[in-house]
Design brief:
Helix content: 25-40%
Number of helices: 13
Shape: globular
Distance between the termini: 45 Å
Largest sheet: 8 strands, parallel
Pfam family, one: Hist_deacetyl
Number of strands: 8
InterPro entries: AcuC, HDACs, His_deacetylse_dom, His_deacetylse_dom_sf, Ureohydrolase_dom_sf
GO molecular function: histone deacetylase activity
Organism: Metallumcola ferriviriculae
Keywords: Acetoin catabolism
Strand order of the largest sheet: 2-1-3-8-7-4-5-6
């Protein structure tokens, strides 16, 4: 189905680095690109370097004063007390590092470069697995995210007159993207995440549906802790095809955080690689059915960077280029990284799902997730626009 896929990467993207003790470790990018390469999934014609974003790109979604504060902190290597108070810079989640603004510009530029290539028709599918910083909002860093690359890319696609469907499968709610387009009926945001009752950022209920003209254009599917593949796939099928068929996007932008995996230390979902491959395949098929294959994908969260992140994002890229027959992990990759990993590295690209037993309360969790999806898809609210205007019209 794919005619012109593109992978955005250069080693300089590793410079977005909060330090060795921080869970957002850029080594996961290196592990992933090496795995993709050693599996023979990368040729020079598929690889494309990012163009660094500029301040004007950031200003489409971020406050100028906030951008100035990030620049200053990156230059001095520390945040002023008021910048920590107002902008969440210099916190445990978002520590300041030297060159932070410029490293962030390159990361944002990666996703923006993908958006420009799709809008110009130079590519249909683009993957920037270094992107996916979905928590940053207009004037605040949040959850390891300094700038919101997804929002900058969506803003650009909107400027080209495109309707954008945003799909987020990170374990954490895609709050930043949701809030930045909350009243825009030309951007549909859909987030599947662990319930905010148990996990940062605490938002993402089914009652967050958008505002004003954008009412009904925000969809949230908060999942129960310990949700497994079968339940995730069921609610994905209940929600995604119906919502996207009704919205009829010009392009799909998707965030593929893989911190919902059973092995991930920062969340409580219990997916295997099967859940992520299924989501990628579903989005891929919908992109061709609804918007001529236009699909911009990013990475996101993922904190078991030895066993999970490289395999999930490699499987995502393999779906994009239609190389779905991956079996064994390459011996050279295992030999190179196995001596550094504190855990035994998997020898298969995909998990053996039979090795993951059903969780206690499995049936109850499935039923709760099913009811949540039904509530989210209530036709009384879905894609309705400003309810006050509808009321006035009556």
């Amino acid at each position: 189905m794919s005619s012109n896929p593109c992978l955005i990467y250069v080693p300089e993207l590793l410079q977005y680095n909060f330090g060795p003790q921080h869970p957002f470790n850029p080594l996961r990018l290196k592990l992933t690109i090496d795995l993709i390469d050693q599996l023979g999934l990368l040729t020079p014609t598929l690889l494309y370097p990012p163009e660094s974003a500029v301040d004007a790109d950031l200003h489409t979604v971020h406050d100028r004063h906030y951008v100035d504060a990030v620049k200053k902190a990156g230059d001095t290597g520390e945040a002023e007390p008021q910048d920590t108070q107002y902008y969440e810079l210099g916190t445990e989640d978002n520590p300041v590092f030297s060159g932070m603004h410029h490293a962030s510009l390159l990361l944002v530029g990666g996703t923006l470069t993908g958006a420009k290539r799709i809008a110009s028709g130079k590519a249909d599918h683009v993957l920037n697995f270094s992107g996916g910083l979905h928590h940053a909002v207009r004037a605040k860093a949040s959850g390891f995210c300094i700038y919101n690359d997804l929002a900058v890319a969506i803003s650009y696609l909107r400027s080209q007159g495109m309707r954008v469907a945003y799909v987020d499968i990170d374990a954490h709610h895609g709050d930043g993207v949701q809030w930045l387009f909350y009243d825009d009926p030309e951007v549909l945001t859909i987030s599947f995440h662990e319930s905010g009752k148990f996990l940062f950022p605490g938002t993402g209920t089914v009652y967050e549906r958008g505002s004003k003209a954008g009412f009904g254009y925000s969809l949230n599917i908060p999942l129960e802790p310990f949700t497994q593949d079968q339940s995730f796939k069921e609610v994905l099928d209940m929600v995604l095809p119906v919502a996207l068929e009704q919205f009829r996007p010009d392009v799909i932008v998707s965030q593929h955080g893989c911190d919902g995996h059973e092995f991930d230390p920062l969340a409580h979902l219990s997916f295997t690689t099967e859940a992520y491959s299924y989501a990628a395949k579903t989005i891929h098929q919908l992109s061709h059915r609804l918007c001529d294959g236009r699909w911009l994908a990013t990475g996101g969260g993922g904190y078991d960077f030895w066993r999970v992140v490289p395999r999930v994002w490699t499987l995502l890229w393999a779906e994009m280029i239609e190389k779905g027959d991956l079996v064994d992990m390459p011996g050279e990759w295992l030999k190179k990284y196995g001596k550094h990993s504190p855990v035994a590295l998997p020898e298969m690209v995909s998990d053996d799902t039979e090795a993951f037993s059903p969780k206690p309360r499995h049936a109850e969790i499935m039923e709760k997730n099913r009811l949540t999806a039904e509530k989210a898809m209530n036709p009384q609210f879905l894609l309705k626009g400003d309810p006050s205007r509808t009321q006035l019209a009556k």
